[in-house]
Amino acid sequence: MSTSAPGDRTPSPGDLLLVDGRASVQFAGNRALTFRVVSVSRQPTYPGWVWLTGYVLNRRGEATARREVYVQAAGLRRHPAPRPVDARVTACSAE
What we know:
Layout: E1 16-19, E2 33-40, E3 49-57, E4 63-72, E5 77-78
Antiparallel strand pairs: 1-2, 1-5, 2-3, 3-4
């Protein structure tokens, strides 16, 4: 998130965010999203609100849907980077 001014919480492309009820009531509870920001709209909005375009990530960190969300910037939280899941399958053989 941008830190150009004190208290500035404007997200930047590439940010990985937790979008939950603090950002907008529509994402409260089990509707929270892990969201990778692709772009931030310059469209004028209500003070403190922002349009974000990005991808919803699953628990593996894989993009599952492209979304545009309208959220309060102050309610966004950085999300720790998801750990990649090792796709290799190991076979155990009994001897």
